[in-house]
Amino acid sequence: MEERVRIGLVGCGAQTQLVHLPLLKNNKQAEIVALCDPDVRKLNHLGARYNVKRHYVDFDDFKQDSEIQAVIIATPNHLHAPMTIACLEYGKDVLCETPLALTATEAREMQQVALREKRRLVPCLNYRLRPDVQVIKQFIENGELGFIYYTKAGWLRGRGAWALSGWHADRLRAGGGAFMSLGSEILDMSLFLLQPLVPKSVTGTMHRRRDGTNIEDGAFAMIRFEHDTTLTIEVGWSLLRQDDMTYFNIFGDSGAALLNPIQINKEMHGHLVNVTPAVSKGDPLRAAADKQIQLFLGAILQGGELAVKPEDGILVNELIDAFYQSVAQHKEVYLPERSGS
Q1: In the chain, which residues fall in CATH 3.30.360.10?
Q2: Are 58 and 85 in contact (CB under 8 A)?
Q3: Which tens digits make up the pLDDT trace of 37-79?
Q4: What architecture is the 5-125+288-307 domain classified under in CATH?
Q5: Is-above-0.85 flag for pTM?
Q6: Radius of gyration of the chain (CA)
Q7: Of 221 and 3, which is predicted with more confidence?
Q8: Which of 50, 116, 141, 303 is deepest in the core (most CB within 10 A)?
Q9: Which region, left, alpha or beta, applies to residue 260 given φ > 0 means left and ψ of -120 to 50 means alpha?
Q10: DSSP string, 299-328
């Protein structure tokens, strides 16, 4: 029988129900052995649906289960760091939902524990694994777009598309509003495509529709990279619009690439030419999530490099920290110097 990774999941909300459990069920390298959530009804329903016998309402009991080799953390943001650290210390590899932590300091602590315990820690930053993003990355690496000087990205949700309730509306548990919740994946995808360029500073502003709330509904940032490359990001979940919109545009001095849908244009002999290659059809987000799970399981079973590393999640948290600091201080905030920058 093919070796399989015995996985436990913490948090049985929408991400677990719609993404993690269905993908794990269809993966021959995975065996779902335990679920943990304070909602007994969810545990019973999902346990019966996916034939998972071990249910935990108490995380302390869950983390001590020696049958669990690896854990997926899909809980409210404020629990990511403490739960991940606890699982690492009990000898389990961890795939943690985004953002990795509430702050970069917490994220660095998670990385240090993973190194100390010799366990794998993977931030669930999977937009970079989308098939269309991988195609654009190849064009950039081959120099076909020239020098990348400007990138713009956004995730704008209509007011009726996002119910701001529960832990999302509590800054102590969410860590932030639209920028942290919607911006993490967009930030990582942008950083991935712009590598090896290093971000230098963040200037941010935000908007709150409701008086007295400490959670922003809209967030807008400009991130400056070395060599004067600029990234702008806009995210929001209460815009007075009827539809949702996600976009990503990257501009070089000899070509440009767009997402949703993918389109790549190059300047050739004085003309703009569409050179978009064929990309596999289907949901790119689901394909990316599936790819990340495959890579996570493969790393546990066969070893090797991780596709997404803790330092990727740390950098995202550094940018988020700088954004909120910029908003509070009404000024551009510079990031810590990175080695090699």
Answers
A1: 127-283+316-334
A2: no
A3: 999 999 999 999 999 999 999 999 999 999 999 999 999 999 9
A4: 3-Layer(aba) Sandwich (3.40)
A5: yes
A6: 20
A7: 221
A8: 50
A9: left
A10: HHHH----SS-HHHHHHHHHHHHHHHHHHH
